[in-house]
Amino acid sequence: MADVFKKVEPAEYYRRHLTHDARPDGRQLLAFRDVVVSVGTIGTADGSALVRLGGGGTTVVCGVKAELASPRPDTPARGYVVPNVELPALCAATLRPGPPTALAQTLSQAMADLIENSGCVDAGALCVSPGRLVWALHVDAVCLAHNGNLADACAAAVVAALRDTTLPAITIDDETGRVRVDSGRERAPVAASAFPVAASFAKFDNDILFADPTAEEEALATATVTVATLEDGSLCLLHKAGGSAMTEKELQQCVDRAQVRGAELRHLVNKVAASKEC
Amino acid sequence: MSCLKQSNLRGFACEQSCLTRSDGSATFNQGETTVLAAVYGPVEVKLSKEHVEKAAVDVIYKPKVGIPGCKEKATEQLIKSTCETVLLVALHPRTAVVIVLQEMQNTGSLLSCCINACCQALMDAGINMRCLVCAVTTTVDQEGHIILDPTSKQEEDGKAVLTFAFDSKTNGVIMTTTSGIYSSQEYQECLLSAQHASAKIFEFYRDSILKKLSRVS
Amino acid sequence: MLTSMLTSITIYLNAMPLDRMRIPGPEDSKPPFVYETPSGVDVSNLVKTNGCRKDGRKADHIRPMFIKCGIISQAQGSVYIEFNNTKVICGVYGPREFGKREDFSMNGRLTCDFKFATFSCKQRRQHQQDAEEKELSQLLLQSLSPAVCLHKFPKAQVDIYVIILENDGSALSAAVTCGSLALADAGIEMYDMVVACSARKYFNSILLDPTAAEEIVPMKTNESVDEGEMTVAYMPSLNQVSGLILKGEMHTQVCAQIMKSCLEGCNLIYPVLQQSLITSIRKSLSNVDLQGSKEL
Predict the structure, then answer these.
(1) Are A88 and C165 a contacting pair at CB < 8 A?
(2) E strand or H helix that includes residue A214
(3) Where is the Exoribonuclease phosphorolytic domain (chain C) (predicted)?
(4) CA distance A193 to chain B (A)
């Protein structure tokens, strides 16, 4: 019966739930889905992470491939970080094979902004020889299952993969200029201490605020907000693209909830990374 | 052409109906930053973009130099959903409203200038809107001071740049996007001062329309 | 004048096939392993004197498998398979309407899309499908379509999407196995499941289910090499072969021999697939039961 109601009147179905501080999947309004993070899952990548929200509802796997390139002339001592989000036709029924959709492009840009703003990659670690050789990190996040809130899942996967990324030691012969990769020496991490965590919220009927929307909820939402926080409580991304207007109080509520969420996720990722080392 | 001079905002200027072949157009200046916006619509829509219950809003953003890439696409999406919010899209189902934005000159606060130009062009086109929208860019400098409507230099030197778009009815935040690192207190301060400045911009909107209409009559 | 301008523009565009839909990286970057000094690892010695391979398997052993069905929430059918380090995910959508407007057909249509994730191989892959991936998509389609009852869904198509998350050899055979299991998981009617297995001839032994290091590397010599690799897609209940691809050159007798090994490998994998399908159906049935009792 409930299934029929949901199909025929999806908005009313959600309205009845949300006005009682409950969601169809059993969560409270400001509750996030459970997160599963595993790092170092892809052996062929220099760093990788898999993030699953709500028992596999949304799954994103991110792999980092490090390559060597010559730097841009205007930034001789800076390496490249090239994040891209792929939404293959595999992850949702609405997608077909082809060039990246507008959503994929927006997400890619959001990941680039997140990495740039937060400074979560150690710029010095990417420079091998100023003006001659730097590392280019290709950070590719592939969405395997799309059930809403890709921004949070992608951000978590990208940051966890970058924290897992290590680079081989490189020596350059001063006389001959020959580059040699020392596979014997210990690999160096690239991540800086900054650890941004994104948290997304949505608004329903212009007034009910809830966290971590699923795909169904995203389709019905009148606005969505993404907030990225750092450990010290500062913000590095606050993105709301259109949709119903929000007051500063509501935005503050999102920021406060995002801080709590950030602490939880940071603890989880650090725990996973520590257990991998053991 | 009407102008606005404010101590904390740069000089604003706007000229509507500057293009002859579009349904509505406007050039918007914030200091030296200039954006030209043209609106076509409601027009026929491509089958792939058609919505049964509303008009599709399509924003095309053209940078001054170079071919548009991912960054421009993200900007387009941002402006698109902002315009979608203020337009009464349900009045024109199975059609499209196409907005073309051309960056003419950028000396800071480009995104807010784009949105303001959009709103002026939409007004000029006479498409039904729920309310008006205006955008304000702010920046937080290294000492934590807030600068409204910054220049490119101020944007580069500051630690964060925050852009807000407000609706004219409730003065709520329709769009917000940020770059750089800032505290949540700084965010609230920026929001409040931007909100305060938005009232001035809406006043400027009214004046410019009044001037235009008085000229017509 | 105009023509010359146009040609110059075309040349310019051809010279810069930049992907504007993605964040651009450096124009030219090299993987670090090209700078590595050749290490002491002997590539030629794949089988140790005691008859074991590098990962400790005997020549006729397949790698341990991990299979999970129903991994993609939005897909009709989906399967994740690991053959040790080869990791494959497959999603099946449909039967749904034709993607493009096409002529009416009484038979349904099958499409396959095969992609290596950019980070799945030693050398980074590009985002766009390259020639090898297009060829593998075709091979996948040809191996799977004989098993599907296409007449059961006229005017509709079934899409099979395969992504290799990590490639440690035998990617095609893993994709075929994964694809057919995903079709079964989606409830698409089939004559039989398709199981695929690869084998490589290495001197006097036949290495079943080769890893990336054991896969054949094409050599540019004019001499005849008595080496090769075969992938066979096989429908065990019907005892029919739906796909076969051979690389290298071998004697006909060796060919027959290596094919026999592949079929033996398929027969080893088949019961595992059946078992995982039963487990997945049991699980979904128990969920239905739970929901039913809730509504009562």
Answers:
(1) no
(2) none
(3) 62-189
(4) 14
CA-nearest of C165, C11, C124 to A69 is C124
> B155-159, C30-34, C184-188, C287-291: lowest mean pLDDT where?
C287-291
Confidence of residue C11 (pLDDT cuts 50, 70, 90): very low
B65 reaches C (C-beta below 8 A): no
Chains touching chain C, criterion 3+ CB pairs below 8 Å: A, B
d(CA A72, CA A132): 9
Q: What six digits make up the tokens of A124?
A: 């010095």
Place of tokens 């008009």: B55
Task: Determine the Cα–Cα distance for residues C160 and B196; give it in Å rounded to an integer.
Answer: 55
Report which residue type is found at C209. Answer: D
A98: left (phi over 0), alpha (psi -120 to 50) or beta: left
- State the pLDDT at residue C1: 46
SS3 state of residue C238 = coil
Can you list the domains of chain C with their CATH numbers?
53-284 (3.30.230.70)
User: What is the reported pLDDT for C143?
Assistant: 96
In DSSP notation, C22-69 reads S----SSEE-GGGGBPP-S--SS--B-TTSBBTTS-BTTPPPPEEEEE
Contacts of A106 in chain B (CB under 8 A): 73-74, 77
CA atoms within a 13 Å half-sphere pointing along the CA-CB vector of A95: 27
pLDDT of residue C8: 45
Helix B184-216 to helix A248-277 angle (10° resolution) is 140
ipTM, two decimals: 0.92
Among C residues 17-76, those touching chain B with beta carbons less than 8 Å apart:
20-24
CB A133 within 8 A of CB A172: yes
- Check if A75 contacts C (Cβ < 8 Å): no
**Three-state DSSP class for A47?**
strand
Contact state of C25 with A80 under an 8 Å Cβ cutoff: yes
| Predicted model pTM | 0.93
C40-46: average pLDDT = 60
Chain A interface mutation, best of B59, B70, B140, highest count of A Cβ atoms under 10 Å = B70
Q: Is A168 in contact with A155 (CB distance < 8 Å)?
A: no
pLDDT confidence bin for B212, thresholds 50/70/90:
confident
> C160: closest CA among C135, C188, C199, C193?
C188
Please report residues of C whose CB lies closer than 8 A to that of B67: 20
Considering only CA atoms, give the Rg of chain B.
17
Distances in Å between the Cα of C52 and the Cα atoms of A58, C110, C117, C167, C280 are 41, 41, 31, 22, 35
Q: What is the pLDDT tens value at each position of chain A, 278 positions in all?
A: 788 888 899 899 999 888 888 898 889 999 999 999 999 999 999 999 999 998 878 999 999 999 999 999 998 999 999 999 999 999 999 999 999 999 999 999 999 999 999 999 987 889 999 988 999 999 999 999 999 999 999 999 999 999 999 999 998 888 887 888 887 788 899 988 899 999 999 999 888 999 999 999 999 999 999 999 999 999 999 999 988 999 999 999 999 999 999 999 999 999 999 988 77
pLDDT band at C7; cut points 50, 70, 90? very low
Whole-angstrom distance, CA of residue C70 vs CA of residue C280: 7
Query: What CA–CA distance (Å, rounded) separates B167 from B151?
Result: 24
CA distance A224 to A191: 29
CB proximity A37 to B under 8 Å: no
